[in-house]
Every structure is written in C-alpha cells, then in structure tokens.
Specification:
Length: 394
C-alpha cells in the first residue's frame, strides 16, 4: 500500500489542467481561483499623502518651537494638494494629498496655534507622518499570484488598484455518487436494514465549502450495471467524479471492478486509518476518486486526499496546511498505519474522542481537528502530535 504522502503525490502528478477562465465582478470573486497574476497599473497611494491631521511643512523651514510659521493654506482628503508656500505651514487632514514642496506633517497635538501663526513644538524630520506614493503598491508590481484562492482582503487589494473585475477559473464541477442499497434519504422512513444517507450531504457540504460546483448524481444501488451507467453519466457531466461506498473487498463492493471495466484503475488502498479502501483512476479523461462509505472514513479521506487533488484540478496553489505541534492528553496504542484521530484542543492538550471507529461521525462534530498518529508511535500524555485544526482543512 502507498503511504498518504505517496498517494497524494501520485494524484497531484495526474491532475488535469485547470478549467477555462472567466471574468467575474469583484463582489462575486471571493473564494474563486485567480487565473492570471494581478499586476498593479497604478501606484497606491497615487501621491504622497498625510497619515495624520496636522500641518504640512518643509522640515528644513523649522527654526524652533518658539518660532511661529504663518498658515499658508488648507487641504482636505479628495482635494488637490497644490503647491506649498515656502516658510509656511498648510493645514492638512488624514489622507489629503501632500502639497508640492512639503515633505513632513506635524501632528496637530504637537502644534500650538495663535494669532502669530502655528508653532511646531517638535522638530520635524522629512517623511514624518507621510505616506509615500506607491508605499502600499507600486505600479507594475505583482500584487496577487495566479492560482490564489481569493480572500476578502485580496478583493480589497484588487479594488485598491482599480480593478472592477478579475479573471478567475471556472468552478470545478464535481459529481457525487453515493453507493449502497442500504441508503435512504433523510426525512424518509429508515426501515430494517436501512440507514440515512449522511455521506451525500457531508460531501456536498464539503465541496461547496471548498468552492466547487456539486453535480449530485444521487444514489446508485449495489448492482454493477447500474453503478457503471451512473459513473459513466457522471463522467460526462463533471470535471471529476467522486463516489463514496463500495470500494472495499466485500461481495457487494463493486466500485473497483466497475472502474476497471469502464475506465482504468491507477491506485487502490492507502496505508491510513480511517480510509484504507480508496480507489483512483479515470473514466475516459475524467478523474475518478472513490472514497470509503463509512462516514468518518469518507470525511477524513475527503479532507486529506480529495481536497488537495481537487484544488490542483481547479488550478489553485497548494494550501498552507502545516500542522501545529500539540501535546497529547490521552493514550493510544501504536498503529500499523498512519491514523487520523478526531481530537479536541483543550487547555490540557489534545483530547481524543472516546470512539475512533470509522463508522462514528459524531466524533467529528465534537472534535475541532485531526491529530496525526504515525505508524509505530504509541501515544502517552505529553507525546507531541501534529494537529490539523478544521480551519486548516476548510
């Protein structure tokens, strides 16, 4: 079996090229993936301006705290700074353009105004309380890289350099197929032998949270011919097909055999817990990823394996998911493969949910992240573990 790292590397190397780009207005761009670098076409700020309410002057004109300088003008934000009269001060307000010839701003708290003029009580230095032209962003600078998933602050940066719209990648279309005769929809009656279909909604919510368009293909019963038809139709409708259930080795687990029949299987089974049964391949040119059906396994493999692969298919830069190091506050025996434990970060350290079974989903809502337990490592209180908060996997 491949390690988690080997499996992710294999999938990333096989990721197809990103979707085409499309322009979207700034108000709709948050969470989208930038298709090309954003290059500033203007300086920000466009001219030297004041960082304070006060008085603009040429620093060299100051002759002492007891020597008043006459008031020569006034400029507020939004007005043209004009020319500064030598040996005077100009009343200026925060954000106002610095008059030509002035090179400093004296804070109004450090000035005294009387009939003789304005006394600047503290010797100014050129550049005091001045925001220089281009200090934030210089014309021609690369402001945002291609592949960045745009945050709210990125939208503000784009607006600050005058962009009304941005070229972004079309949202990746991900088809979701749930497999299993036992599945019924929430709201229906779950008779004997039936369970509610949590994975369909879990995966749909995750994919939407990650910025992808979900193509819901419903539930495929445990019949190979129906699964094959559903997978083929999904591959025609989407950029990537994601299924859950039916990837293990039971007599009713048909995903692996179906994929080998209608497409090609490139990877099967990973040395991780939960989530060992996992299939990857292609149906025609469409990537296919089959996740296990146990809900905790589906969640963990979606976050650890599917998420970076789908992001690469979208054309996004790799996310920064460096785990934190936190001491354990529980015990666990050494496993034979890498484990992802549902844990909560408390004042005592990491506490583990009492039942780590792959069929237990409630532990994921109780937890605030995953702790990584390498193979062969027995955990005792105080053992440092890599911790992935849910926020790093969002």
């Amino acid at each position: 079996m491949l390690s988690v790292e080997q499996a992710i590397a294999r999938l990333l190397a096989d990721a197809p090229g990103p979707p085409a780009s499309e322009p979207v207005p700034l108000a709709a761009a948050r969470g989208r993936v930038l298709a090309v670098p954003l290059v500033a076409t203007v300086d920000v700020p466009p001219a030297d301006n004041s960082a304070m309410d006060g008085y603009a002057l040429a620093a060299a004109d100051w002759r002492g705290a007891d020597q008043p300088l006459p008031l020569g003008g006034r400029v507020a934000a939004g007005q043209v700074g004009g020319d500064h009269t030598p040996h005077t001060v100009t009343r200026i307000f925060t954000g106002a353009e610095l008059p030509n010839g002035a090179d400093a701003v004296a804070m109004q708290e450090n000035c005294r105004v009387d009939d003789d003029g304005v006394r600047v009580l503290k010797q100014p230095v050129a550049g005091d309380h001045v925001r220089a032209r281009g200090q934030d962003t210089a014309r021609g600078a690369n402001v945002l890289p291609a592949g960045r998933r745009l945050l709210a602050q990125d939208i503000g940066v784009a607006a600050s350099v005058g962009c009304a719209a941005l070229p972004v990648r079309r949202r990746l279309r991900v088809a979701v197929v749930a497999n299993g005769d036992e599945l019924v929809e929430p709201g229906a009656e779950a008779g004997p032998g039936k369970i509610f279909n949590s994975n369909r909604y879990l995966l749909g919510a995750l994919l939407g949270q990650w910025g992808f368009d979900v193509v819901d293909m419903g539930v495929a019963p445990d019949r190979p011919e129906v699964i094959a038809e559903r997978f083929s139709h999904a591959a025609d409708q989407a950029d990537v097909v994601l299924s859950c259930g039916g990837v293990s080795v039971g007599e009713e687990d048909h995903v692996k055999a179906v994929l080998e029949t209608i497409g090609q299987l490139s990877l099967w089974r990973i040395a991780m817990k939960p989530g060992k049964p996992l299939a990857y391949g292609r149906i025609g040119e469409t990537p296919f990823l089959g996740l296990p059906g146990n809900p905790a396994s589906a969640l963990v493999t979606a976050m650890i394996i599917a998420r970076p692969f789908l992001a690469a298919c979208q054309g996004a830069l790799p996310a920064e998911t460096a785990p934190l190091m936190v001491d354990a506050a529980f015990t666990a025996p050494a496993p034979d493969r890498q484990c992802y434990l549902r844990v909560r970060h408390t004042g005592r350290g990491l506490e583990a949910y009492t039942n780590q079974s792959s069929g237990i989903l409630l532990g994921a809502s109780w937890a605030d992240g995953l702790a990584i337990q390498p193979p062969g490592l027995a955990i005792e209180p105080g053992t440092p573990l890599q911790f992935l908060p849910w926020a790093l996997l969002a």
